[in-house]
Amino acid sequence: MSQKEVQNMQLIQELEIEMMADMYNRLTATCHKKCVPPVYGDAEIAKGEAVCLDRCVAKFLDIHERIGKKLGQMSMQDEALLKK
Q1: Residue 81: is its pLDDT beyond 80?
Q2: Whole-Å CA distances, 80 to 67, 69, 75, 76, 84
Q3: Which of 20, 47, 49, 62 measures 20 to 30 Å from 12, CA to CA?
Q4: Which of 35, 82, 31, 24 is CA-nearest to residue 59?
């Protein structure tokens, strides 16, 4: 691999890490706000809160995956159009 290819790979990896960190932060903030009351009544997480968090995270990740697939399809369509 050339130096430029190595730099491009490193940049892509850094961007991917940044995107994953951003997704994690948004997921955490969104699901915490939705499922955990602002005033804690107990030191342990309640069963209802745990179920809410589990569902929230599952929905968040499902939507993230769907958007990723759609963007991938759109990107492939754009590439196909450019090759014509």
Answers
A1: no
A2: 20, 17, 9, 6, 7
A3: 62
A4: 31
Using pLDDT thresholds of 50, 70 and 90, give the confidence band for residue 82.
Answer: confident
DSSP secondary-structure letter at 84?
-
As a whole number of Å, the CA-based R_g of the chain is: 19
33-79 per-position pLDDT tens digit: 999 998 888 889 999 999 999 999 999 999 999 998 999 898 888 88
How many of the other CB atoms lie within 10 Å of CB of 65? 10
- Ramachandran class of 44: left when φ > 0, alpha when ψ lies in -120 to 50, beta otherwise: beta
The answer to whether the CB of 74 falls within 8 A of the CB of 41 is no
